[in-house]
Design goal:
Number of helices: 30
Radius of gyration: 33 Å
Distance between the termini: 137 Å
Length: 658
């Protein structure tokens, strides 16, 4: 019996050795889709397919701030010192005060330096910007995949490859990322996450291998990330949390690994303070830069604390909804697309309960080194800085703010899918990829150019003052030059409707009144144009554009009363109003001279024609008209002098005047 048992044991041992020897052979029989080295190709191809249709898109919205209209970026390499020396918005506004319109200021020089280099090499070419964004997005997916494999390095389960791949695929395909990738300016989001994930990767490599070079790489990539966007700072919490959950370690062992990222953060904060100072982040009383304001009938005042917190909690609920159901999407969540909320709204209560539950579960499970808890805290920590709770961000919310937090969400879904049968999981993933992929590709189309984006998203953000204003303004730009007068009239009238809606939402929206005045002017409705510009000036008496445009509208209104309605009194009245605003416009001055001359006010006519010759001393017609007006008041001597001056400038002037 003993010999028999000995024989059986020996047989099992030999069988085990045979299985071990055959393991590589078995591994080679894996399908192409199951080999980890091929997953990089899957991620890369998927990323390109999803965003290839953005390659020939134009610049859109905030691209003007950081690229096309930025005085530093458009200088190429020579503009880099300016980028480093000023607030990110300074190069666009070109005024120190306006650069700080958003509370706390913004200092994100790294991506602007990238744009300056691209401008130097390729000029003002959106194709290059879109192409680089796609490459960086793909690289972000690859780094995420490699990092997740590293997280699960000590896990012998085959599920680790599945989790890493599925989490990355879900991240790549999620439509919530369209704004960050399709908008070239969104590169700050991409670089912040790419650098943060890379830094986390190198921290883990150092923790596992104790090679100092990994600490250097961790510090460098973290510095690049935080110089791209400030929300990188949340990884000061995420990186130690990751080590705690995915490595059998404690705080004392974690601290050495954090030295480079802490040093990078301190260096960034010192540079930021030196450049833009220690701004406290006070919220301005301007609705487009502070959504937590309400109009009391005469001016804007701050929300109460309860109103503000209820509105913030509501937006946090919207973020959760968009992660699970990314529809409808819009680039604009400005007031009042998100309206003022209260704790009497059931949606606010549901959102509050959901986040309290997430926080409790996240902390409790993370302490037990549970992956579900980690995913929840990753989401909460990375979202915190853009939630409006820590400091005001200038808008209610934005889809691009989910670019970083969505990593936790996608990892959670992949982990949960790993707990069910592979066949069922792949079916679910396939359905999600098809649905999300279709949404991503079609959503990209809206980002073709500003006009397409604005006119698409206004169907979602109907109550956004900013978007109504943008649609109205861009419709004026597109259709003002139309040769089809009927189409032009129709579209400009439609634009006025959007602009009226903008001022209904935001009663002191001076730019909407300015654009409204422009639309009326192009429609030759000068009276309403004047009224719109005057409304803008009531809001801001120093509004230069409104003042200049008002003078032109008054001039043409005066011309209309004189030449069309034959009402010289009204004509002179409006022309005088125009002259009082701008006393160096030659056409206004000429019309005043003509109107007063026809009415018989020859003294005034001579005064205006004299002014015209001072502005345009080479204008033969001005000298001739001055001569005629001077003769009419009985000054023949000077009248002859002015006639001779006219003839000297243009010998044929008298023949032309017949």
């Amino acid at each position: 019996m003993q010999d028999k048992n000995s024989f059986m044991a020996k047989a099992k041992s030999q069988q085990s050795q045979i299985v071990q020897k055959n393991t590589p052979i078995e591994a080679s029989k894996k399908s192409w889709w199951e080999i980890p080295s091929n997953h990089i190709w899957i991620i890369s191809i998927l990323g390109f397919i999803l965003y290839a249709n953005t390659l020939f898109h134009d610049f859109t919205i905030d691209d003007a701030i950081v690229i096309t209209d930025n005085m530093f970026t458009t200088k190429g390499l020579s503009g880099i010192p300016g980028i480093l020396q000023y607030d990110t918005f300074y190069g666009f506004f070109k005024e120190a005060g306006k650069a700080n319109l958003v509370a706390g200021g913004r200092y994100r020089p790294f991506t602007l330096i990238m744009f300056a280099i691209e401008y130097q090499l390729f000029g003002n070419t959106p194709f290059i910007g879109h192409f680089i964004n796609i490459l960086l997005f793909i690289l972000t997916g690859i780094v995420l995949y490699k990092l997740l494999l590293l997280f699960f390095k000590d896990n012998t389960s085959e599920n680790k490859n599945f989790i890493a791949l599925i989490a990355t695929i879900l991240f790549m395909v999620h439509p919530i990322h369209v704004e960050a990738v399709a908008n070239i300016k969104g590169r700050d989001e991409i670089m912040a996450l790419l650098g943060s994930l890379s830094s986390t990767y190198f921290v883990f490599k150092y923790y596992d291998e104790k090679q100092s070079k990994n600490l250097l790489w961790a510090g460098l990539t973290f510095f690049i990330a935080i110089m791209s966007k400030e929300n990188t700072i949340t990884f000061l919490g995420i990186i130690p949390l990751s080590l705690f959950v995915f490595r059998n370690t404690n705080i004392s062992k974690i601290i050495p690994s954090l030295i480079p990222i802490v040093a990078s953060t301190v260096l960034f904060l010192l540079i930021r303070f030196a450049v833009i100072g220690g701004q406290a982040g006070d919220s301005p009383l301007e609705l487009m830069n502070n959504p937590f304001l309400k109009y009391d009938g005469t001016k804007y005042i701050h929300f109460t604390f309860g109103e503000k917190m209820a509105t913030i909690i509501f937006t946090l609920g919207k973020y959760l909804q968009l992660l699970f159901l990314p529809h409808p999407l819009t680039h604009d969540y400005y007031p009042r697309h998100i309206d003022m909320m209260s704790f009497g709204d059931i949606s606010v209560i549901i959102s509050l309960l959901a986040y309290v539950l997430l926080l409790v579960i996240g902390i409790r499970l993370s302490l037990k080194k549970n992956i579900i808890g980690y995913c929840i805290l990753f989401y909460l920590i990375s979202l915190s800085i853009v939630s409006n709770i820590v400091f005001p961000i200038g808008t209610n919310m934005s889809e691009r703010f989910l670019f970083m937090p969505s990593v936790g969400f996608c990892l959670l879904l992949a982990y949960l899918l790993s707990k069910i049968s592979k066949s069922t999981a792949y079916i679910i993933v396939g359905i999600v990829v098809i649905g999300f992929g279709y949404k991503t590709i079609t959503r990209n189309m809206a980002w073709k150019d500003n006009f397409t984006l604005f006119t698409t998203d206004i169907n979602v953000s109907k109550n956004s003052a900013k978007l109504n204003n943008a649609v109205g303004g861009d419709m004026i730009r597109v259709y003002n030059e139309s040769k089809d007068e009927n189409l032009k009239k129709q579209k400009l009238t439609e634009a006025i409707g959007y602009l009226k809606r903008a001022v209904e939402i935001h009663p002191i929206y001076k730019n909407a009144y300015l654009l409204m005045g422009n639309a009326y002017y192009y429609l030759k409705d000068y009276a309403k144009s004047v009224e719109a510009y005057q409304n803008a000036l009531k809001i801001d008496p120093q509004y230069k554009d409104a003042r200049n445009n008002l003078s032109i509208s008054l001039r043409d209104l005066g011309r209309q009363f004189g030449e069309v309605k034959n009402d010289l009194n009204q004509s002179i009245f409006f022309l005088t109003e125009s002259y009082n605003l701008k006393n160096d416009d030659p056409e206004t001055i000429r019309l005043l001279g003509v109107a007063n001359g026809i009415k018989g006010n020859h003294q005034d006519a001579a005064k205006y024609f004299k002014r015209l010759t001072e502005i345009q001393p080479d204008n033969a017609r001005a000298w001739l008209d001055l001569g005629t007006a001077t003769m009419s008041i009985g000054d023949k001597a000077n009248g002859d002098i002015y006639y001779q001056k006219a003839l000297k400038l243009d010998p044929n002037i008298l023949k032309q005047n017949k």
